[in-house]
Amino acid sequence: MKITAIHSAVVPIASEIRNAYIDFSKMNASVVAVVTDVVRDGKRVVGYGFNSNGRYAQAGLLAERFIPRIMEAPAASHVNESGTNLDPQRIWALAMANEKPGGHGERSVAVGVLDMAVWDAVAKIEGKPLYRVLAERYNEGEADDKVFVYAAGGYYYPGKNVQALQDEMRKYLDLGYSVVKMKIGGESLADDLRRIDAVIDVVGSPRKVAVDANGRFDLQTALEYAKALVPYGLFWYEEAGDPLDFELQAELAGVYEGAMATGENLFSMQDARNLMRYGGMRHDRDWLQFDCALSYGLVEYMRTLEMLKEHGWSARRCIPHGGHQLSLNIAAGLGLGGNESYPDVFQPFGGFADNTPVEDSHVRMPDVPGIGFEAKAPLYRVMKSLAS
Length: 388
Known about the structure:
Number of strands: 11
Distance between the termini: 20 Å
Strand content: 15-25%
Order of helices and strands: EEEHHHHEHEHEHEHEHEHHEEH
Largest sheet: 8 strands, mixed
Shape: globular
Number of helices: 12
Helix content: 25-40%
């Protein structure tokens, strides 16, 4: 058993949408295929991976460092001790060989793409959905039969008025979502409050509306928004300031009584640990959004979960960023609190398996070996072209 090839490509996911900090007019993503010599049901096992939206493709890092390290290593170093499957931890260590600690920016994305593909292959070799593999290996066999998901949208868009924002949210409700998220910080506070009021009118309760500033605010602005948002009782107030400004986050916690969320732009266990130490996050109400596909993959994410446990946090307070099927499998298999969902944007990567209904903001897991990409036809068409 061995990895015979790793292929990489760059796929555009550009659109005219923007949040408070960036637009997505040049956005792209890396896609990889990890080809093995294993055959299941008459087909060669290929694991697929991609990086979440919000960070660009990592073609250079993949081609220059991480793929060569894996492919130049002895084939025996790819597999577990019994030789029955690939070993994600060993392959991760091969990819990270000779890398200095710190600097968790873009390389964490490249490694996360590869790690996703390896786990997809591992579950396919076992002939099981990944969430089942994870539950059996790390969660005493216990897996959730359904996962909470919320609809992430409410982006700023040229010519998009309040009526269009409301129409978007009605669409999400019609799809089966009961909790939605919208962007703030791209307009004035007064305008954003009008937009929030309009969304609440559609959804029916502020407790089912989350808002996301995408790290735009300085401390003064973050606090101004917090004071204005407290009376609403929103689902959460997300990423008010720079993701590494733990002092801002801690001061915000002293003013904002409602739930806060952050973490999607922290890319290592060490950074997540600093958030726990210095960010003032409260484990009785706040939410953590670390995205394994951007932060060195599931191997590192499990280290983060262990660290959170040591700090008194339940995995149920984790709702990962990214809206992809890997985090959905992790949520079901390791008992997280849910997963983000992108019903409209970042296609074909956003969303879950085809013909998977959303019922009261919950989805059930498809019985498909691996992560389940093969059950999402538009995405699988992109992926399988890499291995053909």
